[in-house]
Amino acid sequence: MTARTLRPRIVAAGAALAAGTLFLTACGSSTSSSGSGAASPTSSVKAVAADPSLAALLPADVKSGGKLTVATDASYAPNEFKDDKGAIVGMDVDLAKAIAAKLGLSADVQNADFTSIIPGIAAKKYQVGMSSFTDTKEREQTVDMVTYFTAGSAIAVKKGNPDKIDPKDLCGKKVAVQTGTTQADEIKDVRNPDCVKAGKPPIPGDGDKFSLQTDVTQALVAGRDQVMMADSPVVDYALTQTNGQLEKIGDTYDSAPYGIVIAKGSELSKAVQGAVQALIADGTYKQILDKWGVSAGAITTSEINAAKS
To answer: Is the pTM of this model over 0.85?
Structure first.
């Protein structure tokens, strides 16, 4: 997963589960049947009508195929995760389906390890990646990024902050983080170099890294680690799903746009950007964000490759 990379404040969606059960079921790779096990919201989103003018922008092979193959790492609730029935759900999933419908296509949403999604786009295994990717200039060097949301990073600890963690100084602390995320890069490229310069011990191992965000949260719940870093919607959701065992410390920071990943220079980028903008205009976009409690991250204009850093 901003990821993944970064995300904004949100009110968590889904039913709160008994303490610990959400995360104790989430072991193994993200291509397994593991997931959050949480219930998804019951509110519905209106049907999306196809826009022929946008469908005309599609590359011929995508249009003739009739579907949009979308990769997501379904371990990052509430953006993308498996519900208690094993279905892949979440804000990104609903948006992917709405984008496909606007383009006259169906959406084939496939679970994938987060770090494999961009290489999978390059290899033409997937046409689109929607998995809470922060739009960065580095990523834009290899793929196109169509913006659709904004988010920031956040930090969580055990309830009551028993280790007296300062969110601005994590030097020497055991920090759980998902592999391949912006937060993992932040530890390696920013926080640990700053610790060394200050003559303090770095965060061990550049963070305690896990392939699934659900395992990151469980590491904090279980006391294996002292701190968790993730996108802010994910942290907020984890607070509700662990029945008050965790708390957020400090403010959300480093807000940045999420981007839909598409092959570099593909005609599909303009079609997808147009679909996102159309969903914003017709109100479907707001319905989806409201459903998942993430409306604080709404944008008004979708752009292609708009990263600031």
So the answer is: no
